[in-house]
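Sequence in, structure out. Go.
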Amino acid sequence: MYNKKITTLLASALALTSTVGAAAIPGFTFDKRYLARRDLKVGLGTRYGGDCHEEDCWQQGACSFVDYTLPSSIDGSTCVSQDIWDSGAQCGGCISVTYKGKTIIVMVTNKTGGDSNHLDMTPDTWAKLTNGYSGGGVDGIQWDFITCPIPQTDPLVIRMHGGASRWWLAATVENARLRTTSLEFSADEGATWLPTTRGDANMFVAGATVNTDVAWVRVTSEDNTQVLVKNVTLKSGGGSAPGGGSAPGGGSAPGGGSAPGGGSAPGGGSAPGGGNAPGGSNGGKGGSCPAKRHA
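Output:
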């Protein structure tokens, strides 16, 4: 009898804990694709076939990063396979990669061929991982997606692309701590939100226009964290403006708002230069990592 009461009470407590735990994250939707990506642990590591230096290797490439400098806490960059490209959903995500006991942190900045486990790194990044190995590829690198080690107090950057305006809203998120899943614009200070569609070049493009040259931008990351960036200039050369707001749990700084999922880099906006049509990649190279590798 005594044991039966204890068992009943324990079962009730466990049921209550389960109910409370579920209620703590209302509206949370688990992304099964994220689990699949986390299973991609071991594969081929290669380096770019050219002799470019870090940022020069991938500026205006498939992730549409323009005049972007890697945060000092990140060791280098890599391309991921077309198999897991997912319209650029991995862009800006960070990966912990290990080879022969050496571990570095890299950011996804471009795409390549090969199977889903393949990482293709810049020559500078490759040298850091392999301690200067001169060959172009090795089997058996181990890797996994991680949260980018960017301070939560640093601002998220919204970069408007060449040719962008109130009539063509096209933006890319830079310096996020987690990968971005969606971006929305608001021309009425958050009363209503205009969704966007992510193109293959990691560019979020709205299907409608707004009646203002400055708007708020709301960014949602892979864990459903949201960041609000206020006063984004909607034109070529515009983007995050000083004094932007922050999402709950984060701090703000010149350049935009931050929260878990945010990050920073010097400056906001987009680089002056070639305009583009919807679906383009800022009039840049728009390319993948070079197909050729050094032998």
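Check: The CA atoms of residues 35 and 130 lie 28 Å apart. Residues 2-37, 241-287, 291-295 have pLDDT under 50 and may be disordered.
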